[in-house]
Amino acid sequence: MPDQEILVDARGHRCPVPTLRLRRSLEAAPAGARVRLLADDPLARIDVPHFAAGAGFELLAQEEVEGALSFLLRKP
């Protein structure tokens, strides 16, 4: 379902775990699905946009929510 949003909560984990969990969820998601990653590792601010650009996923939003970084990506 294209309007589906999948939540990946990787708070409490250090890189590369948040990015690996994000990758796994995006690969398993149907085309058009949106995946939201929550991470509290500051390196995610660098790693996630780099991963998205290199893997062909669209980074829709990046913000800080309740002390965690929130990334919203879409699978083409």
Q: Termini separation (Å)?
A: 13 Å
What is the structural class? alpha+beta
Whole-number mean pLDDT: 94
The main sheet comes to:
4 strands, mixed
Could you name the CATH homologous superfamily? Answer: TusA-like domain
| Count of extended strands | 4
CATH architecture: 2-Layer Sandwich
What count of domains describes the coordinates? Answer: 1
Low-confidence stretches: none
**Assembly context of the chains:** single chain
Radius of gyration: 11 Å
**Residues in helices, as a percent range:** 25-40%
Give the strand line-up of the largest sheet.
1-2-4-3
What's the number of helices?
2
Order of helices and strands: EHEHEE
Task: Quote the CATH topology.
Answer: Translation Initiation Factor IF3
- Categorize the overall geometry: globular
CATH hierarchy, class: Alpha Beta
Percent range for β-strand residues: 25-35%
Q: Which keywords apply here?
A:
76 residues, alpha+beta, Translation Initiation Factor IF3, four-stranded mixed sheet, 2 helices, 4 strands, globular
